[in-house]
Structure formats: C-alpha cells, structure tokens
Specification:
The chain is an all-alpha fold and 210 residues long. The protein has helices spanning 9-17, 21-29, 32-42, 53-66, 76-100, 106-109, 112-132, 140-155, 159-170, 175-182, 186-209.
Length: 210
C-alpha cells in the first residue's frame, strides 16, 4: 500500500470530521471492497441486470460523501455501520423500484428491517474471517484494516471463487444450499470452496505486501 493507504482509518475519520476533504475521499475509497462484498448478498439477482454491485456501491459512496456532516459517530465501527445502512437503504430502493412496483408479494420478503439484519449478519461473518488470520487481539484501527484487506482480496478473486466465498462466508449458506445456487453437486461446491480459500489466502498476502 502507498503511504496514504497505510494511514489509520481512525486518523482519516478524525481528519474528515475536522473538514479535511481529501481524508474523507481516501476514507470512503478504502471501503469500496467491503461494500462490494456486502452488495453481492444484498442485491437481489433479479435486480442485477438493471443495477450492478458496482453501481450500488458508487451510489452509496456518493450519498455518504454528500451526507457526511450527518454522521454523528466518532469511531470507525460506527462509520462502518453508517455506510452499511446507506448501502442497505439503496438496495431496498432498488428492489422497490424494480420488483415491488410490479409484484407486491415481494414487499414482506424485502422489508428494510430484514435487509438490515442480513447486512449486519454478513458483516459479523466477515469479522469472523478476519479473526482467523490474526493471532492476537487487534485495535479498532487494525481490525478495520484487516476487514479492508479481506474485502479487497475477495473482490480480486475470479467470479466463481468470489461467489462461493460470498455464499459460504457472507451469506452463511451450507454446501447443499451453495450447490443449488451454483448448479453443482455439494461435493463439487466444497472442492470449489477449498480452492477459493487457497486463492483468497494468496490474494490477502498480495494485499498486505502492496
């Protein structure tokens, strides 16, 4: 990482709160990978033909930049949660626009509360993955850096590897359920996951040394 990218998220957040526009842009950019990983599970497959994960993330980051003065927290954990809520709200609006207007039966399935709960659960699973790669306790800033490295590494995987990682570790699906989603046998899904995990380790190592 370059010098700017190595600055602690807490320092960037404090500088941004003090009005430093460059720090805010750097801080928001560091969350692109994280928000993309979450968006894969938030964005309904029936909507993806009209709105990509990248579009959803870009829209959310622009909104966060515009409304940053409304952020009332002081920690990176609170900031991460605030960004997550913005992402969920935009995902819900996408469903409202492209699905609910035509089929009202989807409204209960895609309630805002359920989407927020799903996003929080996905975040918790990502946190669990970062803990596996750290031997000792981490500070808040170190924890956020781990989350950023992990998310960026997942986004750099091939489509199949990224999908199986997201289904298993972000959505929390069993291999039987993954097999159905990916049109494979459960055994083939497990083998694909094992290869994906190995590639993820390599990608994380590369992220740490860039």
């Amino acid at each position: 990482m370059n010098e700017t990218e190595q600055r602690r998220a807490t320092q960037l957040l404090q500088l941004a709160r003090n009005g430093d526009a460059e720090s805010l842009e750097t801080l928001l950019a560091s969350y692109i990978g994280y928000l993309k990983v979450l968006s894969h599970s938030q964005l309904d497959p029936r909507v993806r033909g009209r709105l990509s994960a990248s579009d959803l993330v870009q829209e959310s980051l622009l909104e966060a930049h515009r409304d940053f003065t409304k952020f009332a927290g002081t920690t990176t954990a609170e900031f991460t949660g605030w960004l997550r809520k913005i992402l969920v709200n935009n995902a819900a609006r996408a469903v409202e626009t492209h699905l609910l207007a035509a089929k009202r039966d989807y409204r209960r399935e895609y309630s805002l509360d359920l989407l927020r709960q799903a996003a929080d659960e996905s975040h918790a699973r990502l946190n669990s993955m970062t803990a596996v790669h750290r031997r000792g306790p981490a500070s808040e800033a170190e924890h956020q850096e781990d989350l950023t490295v992990l998310s960026n590494a997942i986004e750099k995987l091939s489509t199949e590897y990224r999908e199986v990682i997201v289904l298993r570790h972000v959505e929390g699906l069993t291999f039987a359920d993954i097999a159905i989603r990916m049109n494979r046998s459960a055994g083939a899904s497990r083998m694909l996951w094992m290869r994906a995990i190995e590639k993820l380790r390599e990608a994380m190592s590369n992220e740490n040394h860039e």
